[in-house]
Amino acid sequence: MSIVYLNGQFLPRAEAKLSVDERGFFFGDGVYEVTRVVRGRLFEWDRHARRLARGLRELRIDAGLSLDGIGALHERVVAENRMTEGQGTVYLQVTRGAAPRTHHFPPAGTPATVFLSATPFVPPNELRARGVAVVTYPDYRWTRCDLKTVNLLPAVMAKQFATDHGAFEAVFLRDAVVTEGSHTNVFGVIGGEVRTYPNSNYVLPGVTRDVVVELAREMGIPVSETPIYRHEIAQLEECFLSGTTSDVMPVVAIDGAPVGTGKPGAITMRLYEALARRLAAASGTAAPATVVA
Fold first, then answer.
1. Measured between alpha carbons, how far is 153 from 268 in angstroms, rounded to an integer?
2. C-alpha count within 13 angstroms, C-beta hemisphere, residue 113
3. Residues noted as catalytic
4. Domain span at residue 106?
5. Angle, to 10 degrees, between the axis of helix 45-59 and the axis of helix 207-218?
6. Are 91 and 215 within one domain?
7. Which phi-psi region, left, alpha or beta, contains residue 191 (left: φ > 0; alpha: ψ -120 to 50)?
8. Rg, the chain, Cα only
9. Taking the model in full, what pTM does it have?
10. Which among 106, 87, 86 is positioned nearest to 26, based on CA atoms?
11. Are 178 and 229 in contact (CB under 8 A)?
12. 289: in domain
């Protein structure tokens, strides 16, 4: 049975209980992070911590813990679940806590609810080798998509739309512009240049997204934080998704139409291999065991 952390205690998951007055339950009043674990080590925790700190600040939630303290909890929950080999993820959720239901904030001093759990993870390398199909979906979300809140119903509906249509992911379109996926960032290659929507209030500043942009620049691959418009989708030479559990995932079809050759593109796979090397280096592994041949 997995061990989780909840409000100061490490305990079996089945024994973790929340109050019915929890504001995360009533309002989705909280933020979350999902951090990759490779051979017991957190990947890019500092980037996750910065994004978490910004979300807590913008929502005016006091977690009651320092970022270093939250990082230590991540390491402890990894150890408690014996995730020292292979890969996994740590899920963190911080809400405004439990209090009688009111739309305004609860009284000062109401403790936040802090929850962490760790789950084994197997990278989807067979899927990556052949690439995935995606569908487009209207971006009906609010305009603070840059905050990683637990208000995920629009993402749930979009992902279900993709599932209903046999697709891996739903890609949001706002005013005829590709913004991001339901749980990924989106990249396209046009004229040999990698393009992705710029960080703004309309997209989540993805940790893997930022690492991929950084890697592309280090490798001399042209990259531009420039939106991809609906009419440019048919011009895409390559397309890929990025995310904590997707890494770099090639997209070979959009709304039933092939992207480029209909196979994972060369630039896409170069970026995936660079990311795999970064993951391996972060875990102390000599060589990236997850590179697709």
1. 30
2. 24
3. 148
4. 3-121
5. 130
6. no
7. left
8. 19
9. 0.94
10. 106
11. yes
12. no
Which candidate, 94, 37, 104, places its Cα nearest to that of 67?
94
Tell me how far the alpha carbon of residue 248 is from its chain's centroid.
Answer: 12
pLDDT tens-digit map of 46-85: 999 999 999 999 999 999 999 999 999 999 999 999 999 9
Tokens at 105, concatenated = 């904030």
User: Quick one: pLDDT at residue 284?
Assistant: 78
> Does one domain contain both 81 and 169?
no
124-154: b or e for each residue (b if 16 or more CB lie within 10 Å)?
eeeebeebbbbbbbebebeeebbbbbbbbeb
Determine the Cα–Cα distance for residues 66 and 271; give it in Å rounded to an integer: 34
| Residues 249 and 141 placed together within one structural domain of the fold | yes
Q: What is the C-alpha to C-alpha distance for residues 99 and 107, in angstroms, rounded to an integer?
A: 8
Boundary-marking domain end, from 88, 103, 121: 121
Written as one letter, the residue type at 280 is: A
Q: With contact defined as beta carbons under 8 Å apart, do 174 and 202 qualify?
A: yes
Residue with tokens 């690492």: 211
Q: Which two tokens stand for residue 220?
A: 């001399």
In a domain, 290, yes or no: no
Tell me the mean pLDDT in the region 175-187. 98
* 215 shares a domain with 78: no
Is the same domain home to 29 and 107? yes
Q: Are residues 35 and 164 in the same domain?
A: no
Q: Is 97 helix (H, G, I), strand (E, B) or coil?
A: coil
The answer on 259 and 150 residing in a single domain is: yes
